[in-house]
Amino acid sequence: MKRLVIVILTLVCAFSLEAQINASRPSWLTRLPKAPRKAMYYYRVTTAEARTYEQAYAKAFAAAIQESRWKLGVAVDINTNEEEQKQNIINNINVQPSQVRLQLNKACEYIENSTVNMNVRVSILWQVARYGNVDPQFDDFTDCE
To answer: In sequence order, what DSSP letters do the residues of 14-36 get, joined into one string?
Structure first.
């Protein structure tokens, strides 16, 4: 009986801690904001985890590029040298694959440090152009909390 009480108390504490963590996360992590009706962009969230912030950011950025390129119907080369891909990501936010220019705008960023495996998790809210080779007027997104 004592063990059962200890297990129940442990579970209650764990759920309480998880609820506190979720309460401090921004709303855009679970519910994407809506772009204005005639906007030439949409919102997307990418999340990545790595040992350092820079590595996690590069992975989240690469995920945004790959998902958006796939949506536009542009071939994605997943065999690209990882270091070369990271360098391209860091140096150039406008990706130009196969004559298609894809506009991305970072609207918000949320960083979590894992206490379990000491990794950093980066979540980024992007504004992504609906079509290639267009210059959308990205609106300021100020609700990052």
So the answer is: HHHHHHHHHHHS-GGGTSPPPPP
